[in-house]
Amino acid sequence: ELYVEAVDSSGGECANPGCERRSKLAMDHDHAICEGKKACVDCFRGMLCFSCNSALGMLEDDEDRIRGLLFYITNTI
Q1: At 47, which helix (H) or strand (E)?
Q2: Which residues pair with 57 in a beta bridge?
Q3: What is the pTM of this model?
Q4: C-alpha angle 51/48/38, rounded to 5°?
Q5: Triad 19, 1, 45: Cα angle to 5°
Q6: What span, in angstroms and rounded, lies between the C-alpha atoms of 20 and 38?
Q7: For 1-52, what is each residue's pLDDT tens digit?
Q8: What is the dihedral of CA 48, 49, 54, 59, to 10 degrees?
Q9: 13 in helix, strand or coil?
Q10: Is 25 helix (H, G, I), strand (E, B) or coil?
């Protein structure tokens, strides 16, 4: 199964280099390629922890919004 293979190849870690979580991994996928709610071989990008995957989904993979939030927290703390 794709999920088991992906967890094994990820070493059980979130693919976000800034995250150290090792639990509740989710299969991140590109919604622009597949409109389904589950990852497939064609749209699978990597394993993210539930929090990182949820955040990315809420930001709709929008690089400008993601960069904007990074700028915001970098310049307001």
Answers
A1: strand 44-49
A2: none
A3: 0.83
A4: 100
A5: 40
A6: 24
A7: 889 999 999 999 999 999 988 888 999 999 888 877 788 888 999 999 999 9
A8: -50
A9: coil
A10: strand
